[in-house]
Design goal:
The complex is a heterodimer of chains A (266) and B (44).
Chain A: H1 2-20, H2 29-43, H3 51-65, H4 72-87, E1 93-96, H5 97-102, E2 111-113, E3 118-121, E4 133-137, E5 140-144, H6 146-161, H7 165-168, H8 181-185, H9 195-206, H10 208-216, H11 218-224, H12 234-246, H13 250-262
Parallel strand pairs in A: 1-3
Antiparallel strand pairs in A: 4-5
Helix pairs in contact in A: 2-3, 3-4, 4-6, 9-10, 9-13, 10-11, 12-13
Chain B: H1 2-25, E1 34-37
The chains are: A mainly alpha (266), B mainly alpha (44).
């Protein structure tokens, strides 16, 4: 089960890499699991007719759904390369008898190799996509296909260059209409003797819509802007009513309000 | 602490994705061994 060991080692290396830099997680895991089950079966020597087609369909849809994730298009290309050549050999990956002879293994063509998805062949359709890249790895030797290499490149690409969605979409600047409670507590009303009216004046000066609303009907303005919390006492309300009665335009309303806030008017 | 837990979960998920993806999409040859004679391929 050297191949399974290889998969586990790659998974652990990927996990270590994702601890340093969490990648963007692909969606639709179930499709990937469905695609993997028949392949696991073939590794364990269980061949069910039609399951290869299920595997191809599931992984194709999974790649299509996650094509926006960095590295997945490369993974898809590698998988397609592998599955294409496997489709010509009944769902098994062809490996030349000569390639096996190079690494000291002799098998009769037509032999299914234990612990891998390979079948020994004398000549293969699309041989360039079959297992022929001999990769020594310490005590053992692996034979990979170009598709395997492309998949690995895609996985590394995904680990290094994909970013979690929330990090990528984080705005550079956020606008908050209502200040948090602690921020409000730190606000200094200033030198005005009418702090609530001061805030009202600042709001009206900042937004012509608010100013116009206050001039026409303060209750409607308050209902339209519930996020601006201001509590006016009886004196403030009387002053506001007085200003509204005098002012004909928004400009006059703001000017009178400013006078009251500055203490120039009662 | 919460951040570390989140990172560990992310790493575990990444390992699962990689493992499943390799299992589903790659077909390298590993150790020698004969399982059976194939009846569906003729080796040609």
């Amino acid at each position: 089960m050297t191949v399974l060991t290889l998969y586990i080692c790659c998974s652990l290396a990927g996990a270590a890499l994702s601890l340093w830099r969490p990648p963007q997680m692909p969606r639709y895991w179930l499709l990937l699991a469905i695609a993997a089950v028949p392949q696991l079966g073939s590794l364990l020597g269980i061949w069910i007719p039609g399951m290869f087609l299920v595997s191809v369909t599931a992984i194709f849809i999974w790649c299509l759904c996650n094509r926006a994730v960095a590295g997945i298009p490369a993974v898809a290309a590698g998988v397609i390369m592998n599955l294409l050549v496997m489709a010509f050999h009944g769902g098994a990956m062809p490996i030349h008898a000569e390639t096996l002879a190079q690494i000291g293994h002799t098998f009769v063509p037509g032999t299914l190799l234990m612990g891998s998805k390979d079948v020994v062949v004398q000549s293969a359709t699309l041989w360039l996509l079959s297992d022929w890249l001999v990769l020594p790895a310490g005590a053992t030797t692996y034979v990979a296909s170009p598709g395997d290499i492309v998949v690995m490149v895609g996985v590394i690409w995904w680990l290094l260059f994909s970013h979690p969605r929330e990090e990528r979409n984080r705005p550079m600047l956020t606008f908050r209409a209502a200040a948090p409670a602690d921020q409000r507590a730190r606000l200094i009303p200033g030198q005005s003797a009418r702090p609530a009216l001061t805030r009202l004046a600042l709001l009206a000066a900042a937004s012509p819509t608010v100013a116009e609303g206050l001039l026409r009907d303060p209750l409607d303005a308050a209902a339209a802007h519930p996020h601006f919390v201001l509590s006016l006492d009886a004196r403030d309300r009387a002053t506001l009513a007085d200003i509204r009665a005098r002012a004909r335009t928004v400009g006059e309303f703001l000017a009178d309000l400013a006078d009251v806030v500055d203490g120039a008017a009662a | 602490m919460k951040s570390m837990k989140r990172k560990l979960i992310s790493a575990l998920a990444a390992a699962l994705v990689i493992g499943t993806l390799l299992l589903a999409g790659t077909a390298p040859y590993g150790p020698p061994g004969v399982r059976s004679k194939s009846s569906m391929v003729d080796g040609q």
